[in-house]
Specification:
Blueprint lengths: L34 H20 L2
């Protein structure tokens, strides 16, 4: 039996913590991945998803 979602509620809390300019989210602050590595990871994931969809 399929599940139908009729309403999606998204809540966010915005706080000022003294940062200025463009700052990275806290989730990636401990990650030392270079931009090139990040692009490669994203491309690999996209290709993997496309292969899965093509196989269906």
């Amino acid at each position: 039996m399929p599940v139908e979602i009729r309403e999606l509620v998204i809540r966010a809390t915005v706080t000022e913590d003294g940062r200025t300019g463009n700052s990275k989210p806290d989730a990636s602050s401990g990650d030392s991945t270079s931009p090139e590595q990040l692009v490669k990871i994203c491309v690999d994931k996209i290709l993997e998803i496309l292969k899965e969809q093509h196989g269906r």
